[in-house]
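User: Hi! I have a protein structure encoded as tokens and I'd like to know what sequence might fold into it. I'm fairly new to this, so please keep things simple.
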């Protein structure tokens, strides 16, 4: 095999590898829309919560959301652990209504416990009790698993949640350039085969 062919094949193989790496970091959350019953959808919940589709807050009856309600001084948590690629940047986006403020969102150290935050942000009181606010948050994954969590603390605020997504940030220009080069190499190989045949 000629050196040119070898290098072309190597380039094609590298581009395919980079594509599969991108695909693996695409959809990382299970039921981010919360339209399946939370206990069986990949989310872990503790403390008081309601899974609801009240027309007071959503117009489509198939659009469910979760309301975390701290009851009797016990914090209410909702968490999910998912696969990540260490060192990769991710963006989290979600809709929320926080009735009194002081509710929290962030990265957890694997378990739903107020001592296990790696990083968190306090969500302030929403402007209206029927107006969904949008929040975004970015983080760089520390390992091959990441846990995000939401908490309504015992102060009594309710935290309504819907449309939660986690996506890897835009692919690096270098890997996109490699992907395009790989596509070009595939086209070139196909063209040479056609010419030979
Ligand atoms: Ca929903």
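Assistant: Happy to help. Inverse folding works backwards from shape to sequence: for each of the 197 positions I chose a residue that suits the local structure. Here it is:
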């Amino acid at each position: 095999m000629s050196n040119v062919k070898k290098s072309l094949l190597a380039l094609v193989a590298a581009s395919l590898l980079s594509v599969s790496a991108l695909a693996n970091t695409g959809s990382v959350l299970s039921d981010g829309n919360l339209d399946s019953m939370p206990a069986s959808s990949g989310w872990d919940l503790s403390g008081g919560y309601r899974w609801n589709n009240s027309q007071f807050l959503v117009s489509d009856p198939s659009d469910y959301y979760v309301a975390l309600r701290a009851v009797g001084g016990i914090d209410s948590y909702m968490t999910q652990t998912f696969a990540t690629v260490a060192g990769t940047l991710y963006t989290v986006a979600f809709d929320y209504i926080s009735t009194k403020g002081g509710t929290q969102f962030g990265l957890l150290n694997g378990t739903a416990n107020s001592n296990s935050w790696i990083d968190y942000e306090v969500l302030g009181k929403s402007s209206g009790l029927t107006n969904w606010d949008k929040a975004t948050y970015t983080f760089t994954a520390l390992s091959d698993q990441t846990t995000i969590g939401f908490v309504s603390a015992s102060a009594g605020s309710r935290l309504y949640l819907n449309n939660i997504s986690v996506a890897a940030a835009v692919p690096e220009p270098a890997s996109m350039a490699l992907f395009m080069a790989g596509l070009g190499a595939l086209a070139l190989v196909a063209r040479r085969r056609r010419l030979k045949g």
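A useful reference point when you look it over: Strands lie at 44-46, 49-52, 65-69, 76-83, 89-98, 103-108, 117-123, 133-140, 145-152, 158-168. Feel free to ask if any position seems puzzling.
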